[in-house]
């Protein structure tokens, strides 16, 4: 192996190590002291509950681990947005589990908590997956109620989704394993079945303090909304369980009896590992995001037997399209080529840039995959569409619109992996978050922004200089340099995958070696939702 390969390998392995270190910290939730308090009450922690519920050999895919990462610091932080969401297998059935983490502000709902819960429900609805809620929450975090309570995508949307999922026939099971207060009380009670743990579980619209201040009644929380009240008097809950383990065992039993779902019919054969070593990805991917590399070398290390049937290989080469299998599933891959290529017309095309011919090719390939009922995988390392008079006169906007149209209206499931750059309209055309990928994950090497840091910083500096001039103030060279460094540092922080994951622009950050698992579990989930909508692209720009 050459020196460049070894250098890349060291840098990328360091990024993965940093990822794992950050994950370990997030997994601690609200910390050891908060965890000890939960244990004193005889409760299992959120991640322990999930682990107990899942089948022993279950593959697990976590959604939104870094949600709210480095946010709400003045409030003491909110690791994982105070809720743990995973896709896994319970009694052999693939499902989503959503568990409040009571070690984080007693499981209170921050704005990102609502966003993460809605994302979990969206995945359940798109893929018709059963969803299990392990409820242990003090309700809305009152100091931020204006950011979580009234809007369309706020707290109330959760219960709207409960109702919609019920009408769709999606199984919802809830376990009340701690506090369940106010509007949050509707979540378990709008599920198909709700169980409650004796002694620790409680559910009520208003707690004892609020009842006292509202109507003057003196009553304790257990009498107000404990297991005995709701299982023997009100009939609000369906099963009373003595402890967390018994409650989770009951869920396993119910899940074991759920009937099978209809299938979408995506093709799968026996999985085969790539022939080329997956770990070589670390050495192939340059540590410098501007450097060229051959994306096909990445693809060969992600697909079964390293076999890739390339579509229009010699045309529109700045986007690679082709058919392959990932963990046995047939997929159509749309990827940005990062090496410089030369078209037959003699034009040199920069890697990572979308040109008219590549947009045209990708549009046709996406339409073909919809025709053949083949799920789409987008591998993003894109700096945007080509600019300049030659491209504009060649109709780049028209060809870009065609690609966006073909991709946005796709009825086969789409999965997006952000490998490197994800800039501007390139993010859109390559199925960024706004275009409904069933799952979207980033590698630690990802950068997500409207444009690259260096270009953006210079533009922002020019704006700042113009503003200073308008006030009659001229910046010295030293001030300019200082300002440019400050702008660049701030902008670069906003382009990291952690910044994106914290705001759920991506579902998570993964080691590149987990890519096959993400796509495979995603297609397995998507296969439970038959395609009901015909593929119709509307008016295509020609």
TrEMBL record:
The superkingdom of the source organism is Bacteria
Domain CoA carboxyltransferase C-terminal intervals:
275-533
Q: Which residues form the CoA carboxyltransferase N-terminal domain?
A: 12-270
Question: What Pfam families does the database record attribute to this sequence?
Answer: Carboxyl_trans (PF01039)
This protein's name: Acyl-CoA carboxylase subunit beta
Q: Which organism is this entry from?
A: Pedobacter montanisoli
